[in-house]
């Protein structure tokens, strides 16, 4: 996964972040989608409603980039952001 510099992040539309208000977890390619899933539970200061919306964006991006997503809901993720099952393309 290529690290994004600030200029690259600034070019990503808000709706392409799992958490757009915080500009956390970009969803611009398969590697970033997998990373967003892995780090999902590490995002702090967001409500369950924001997590629900973020999960919807992640599911959409996963489908777009061919990332396998076993969990139907973010609550199925184990604690600490680690997945119960690994997503692969």
General description of the model:
By secondary structure, this protein is mainly alpha-helical. The chain has one domain (16-81). The chain has helices at residues 6-10, 30-39, 48-65, and strands at residues 17-19, 24-26. It has a two-stranded antiparallel sheet. A hairpin with a 4-residue loop joins strand 1 and strand 2. Helix 2 (30-39) packs antiparallel against helix 3 (48-65). The longest helix is centred in the middle third of the chain and has 18 residues, at 48-65. The two termini are 13 Å apart. Mean pLDDT is 87; it is low at 80-89.
Summarize this structure as a short list of keywords or feature phrases:
mainly alpha; 89 residues; two-stranded antiparallel ribbon
The total count of helices amounts to: 3
Domain count: the total is 1
Helix-strand makeup class: mainly alpha
Q: List the strand order in the largest sheet.
A: 1-2
Please state the overall shape, judged from the principal axes of the Cα atoms: globular
Q: Pick out the low-confidence regions.
A: 80-89
What's the arrangement of secondary structure elements?
Blueprint: H1 6-10, E1 17-19, E2 24-26, H2 30-39, H3 48-65
Antiparallel strand pairs: 1-2
Short description:
The chain has one domain (16-81). Helix content is 37%, strand content 7%.
């Amino acid at each position: 996964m290529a690290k994004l510099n600030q200029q690259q992040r600034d070019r990503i539309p808000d709706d392409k972040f799992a958490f757009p208000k915080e500009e956390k977890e970009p969803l611009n390619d398969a590697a970033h989608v997998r990373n967003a899933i892995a780090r999902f539970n590490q995002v702090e200061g967001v409500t369950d409603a924001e997590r629900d919306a973020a999960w919807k964006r992640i599911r959409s991006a996963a489908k777009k980039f061919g990332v396998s997503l076993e969990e139907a809901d973010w609550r199925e993720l184990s604690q600490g952001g680690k997945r119960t099952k690994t997503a692969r393309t």
